[in-house]
Amino acid sequence: MFRFILCAFLFAACGQPPSGLAENEISATQNSAGETGQSVKFRVETVAANLEVPWAIAFAPDNRTFFTERPGRVRVIENGKLRSAPVFTVPDVEPSSESGLMDLSLHPNFAANNFVYLAYAYRGDGKRVRVARYKFADNKLIEPKTIIEDIPAAPNHAGTRARFGPDGKLYITTGDATEKEIAQKPDSLGGKTLRLNDDGTIPADNPFVGDKRFRPEIWTIGHRNAQGLAWQPGSNLMFQTEHGPSGFDGPGGGDEVNIVERGKNYGWAEIHHRQTKAGLESPLLEYTPSCAPASGMFSSGKAFPEFKGNFFFGCLRGERIIRVVLDGRKVVKQ
Question: How many domains does the chain have?
Answer without folding.
Answer: 2
